[in-house]
């Protein structure tokens, strides 16, 4: 039970501690020093009151009551004169100012540290995420996490920082209150507990509403993103309004949760102060009529009491805000855990270039228990052009995903230059792989950056860029653009035709200086005229790269060194085009159907 208690109350602390380490204790120490200076400064009112009282009653020497402060002054021999007391007071408050300054600077520093390290951490992990995990995840949820949720996490952190500091301040004032008058301290604790008790159930409601909110808003983001990315289809088929209606449902349910959170906030705001004042009034009554305490002690104690309670109130309010973001923290934490668990496994052997072959030995691959690739043996020699053909769903794309090292085999081995892929540093290998599919990748950036992926504009890179666009037959097009290679592409710039996009993709891979060029139905989305031109571009690269090409239109693979016919995850025939046509009835039929 004790463990459960610790876990509940220190879960959040541990959460932030794992990022901040010793920094969190520096925050606590500085707040403590700041609070202590305030406490000491305020304590000076006690001797001041007593000096004033003595003056009025006409006594020469101050008969000061025993307390921790006066005892301390007596022991170090400071006289209880008005001047001494005022100088000390000014000194304490000056130190308070100094510590406030140091503390604020430190807060800003710690916030910056937290922001930078959480963002970097998540980005770092995401960039190492395995592709297999990525394709089965909800892209909308991931986008929401990496943009909105990470922002919310920072707000949660700021709240928590304030909570810690308010908490420390409460403790400091309680220590002073204890030192002044132990009875008061007990009353403070009782008051705080009463207060806490009343608000406890409100937190519970806020917490579950906040979790629901995060879930709904992930849903919402996902649907919106799909609406936008599939807009053309939805529009063309008249589904766009029905789809938008689904989104409307989401909006309403998010806003009703938001409304509930706001209602709870209103209740909390309305009843906080009356309850607080009620507690204070009870304490005064108790002290004056029941305990018969001295007025000066009561005033100074009340001062601490009041400050402590103000801090408790602030803390409660801040805690309430904070709880609204607990869903976020849990979400980011579980995402971060998923990223860790699905980290790409990577070997150590550095890959430089392809010098012998790519080789599959009895390779199998499955999604869960859905077997996609069923024992494939295939050799692709350096600079060979190999075509994969077969009906859709036969596993061609999966094959090239494995070849590119995006997906790992479930059984069998994949050798590159005779070295098993699992021993290779995948990043060094993938740096030499070019991948072009029908979903062209165009960034919101200049044509130069689209091709070079933000390579520095050195004379050497500029030359390579020129060379790449020449070989991709883009040079004339780029030359005619208003800003030449600085012309912006994508949403914020000019929109390219399908064929131009494909040529940009080709130029990108040529700039990259790859060994292996993978083309997965790269030209299937294009009209046959454009396809022909692109195909000629690709044909011109034959023999210079190791090319693996998946093509729907068989005419495009006529010149391949080897054509591999796939069916249901297996190879059912291979050879050059003519050989395969003679040896495989199925391939012959496919060729005849396309009237070649
Ligand atoms: P092809 O490119 O030959 O059309 P694919 O390699 O894309 O075929 O797909 C092969 C099989 O794998 C298909 O049956 C498809 O349904 C299945 N498949 C593809 N991607 C996934 C996925 N992410 N999860 C589960 N099954 C998948
Ligand atoms: Mg495919």
Automatic annotation (TrEMBL):
The chain crosses the membrane at residues 20-37, 82-102, 160-178, 184-203, 270-290. The keyword GTP-binding does not apply. Coiled coil: none annotated. Residues 25-324 form the ABC transmembrane type-1 domain. InterPro entries: AAA+_ATPase, ABC1_TM_dom, ABC1_TM_sf, ABC_transporter-like_ATP-bd, ABC_transporter-like_CS, P-loop_NTPase, Type_1_exporter. GO terms for molecular function: ATP binding. Keywords: ATP-binding, Membrane, Nucleotide-binding, Transmembrane, Transmembrane helix. It holds the Pfam family ABC_tran. It is found in: Cell membrane. The keyword Transmembrane helix applies. It is a multi-pass membrane protein. Residues 358-593 form the ABC transporter domain. This is ABC transporter ATP-binding protein.
